[in-house]
Amino acid sequence: MTKEALSLILKDMYENAPRGDRTTMIRLFGIKYADELTSCPSPMKEIAELSSVGESYHAEISKGISLSKYVKLK
User: Fold this and answer.
1) Whose CA is closest to 74, among 28, 6, 13, 5?
2) Cα separations (Å) of 3 from 10, 14, 26, 38?
3) DSSP character for 24?
4) Which of 9, 41, 62, 64 is 20 to 30 A (C-alpha) from 22?
5) What's the DSSP call for residue 67?
6) What is the pLDDT of residues 24-73, one digit of tens each?
7) How confident is the model at residue 9, as a pLDDT?
């Protein structure tokens, strides 16, 4: 998956998140798309910046990727 496609998914998840759950949705994005994110050559900062979430949220994406080894989606 391209960095552009991933950034669009992140933007959608962020913008449509319930009130107060935006950061949670960023982590969920990292969990749900961990395989795609780790195989993508672009850095997380770039994906976060392209999505208009802000490059500072790259750490939240990385947290989600780390959590993906231990959690399953409902």
Assistant:
1) 28
2) 10, 16, 15, 11
3) H
4) 41
5) H
6) 999 999 999 999 999 988 888 899 988 988 888 899 999 999 999 999 88
7) 95
